[in-house]
Amino acid sequence: xxxxxxxxxxxxxxxxxxxxxxxxxxxxxxxxxxxxxxxxxxxxxxxxxxxxxxxxxxxxxxxxxxxxxxxxxxxxxxxxxxxxxxxxxxxxxxxxxxxxxxxxxxxxxxxxxxxxxxxxxxxxxxxxxxxxxxxxxxxxxxxxxxxxxxxxxxxxxxxxxxxxxxxxxxxxxxxxxxxxxxx
Length: 183
Fold this sequence. Notes:
Blueprint (H helix, E strand, L loop, with lengths): L1 E3 L3 E3 L23 H10 L5 E5 L3 H13 L3 E5 L2 H8 L13 E5 L7 H13 L9 E5 L4 H10 L3 E4 L4 H16 L3
């Protein structure tokens, strides 16, 4: 043990052990992976392109990687304005990029998720965009008032942060199966 004033103490210990024999080792059963379970659920819908709108770059990167692992094509942007700019490059607007669904953070700088969703729904209703883009709102504020605001803005559903991919996929499947699915 070592101890320094205003720095705390450091404790060390050792455990005497020996390596077990392989023949005595017990194999544990493999549990289904949430990633593996999610992949078949989405595979029946065909290729899925996801736009992740999230201002926290770490969360954006992790979510895009998780979506890629389950077979989606994922692109991340940092705010609602960037999302609108990216959507212009998709088949829903002027471009050729595929877009199946948007995961939209509610609270972001520059343009928040509620404002962006209202703009998307306005453009859809004016016929300036092709079809309906499914949008799932993501928010750490999951009280009924916030969920009501999310739905009122035009998002199809919401998921509370933090969430696991195994919680997100069923919501994605539900909104995509509603007949809005378009690449």
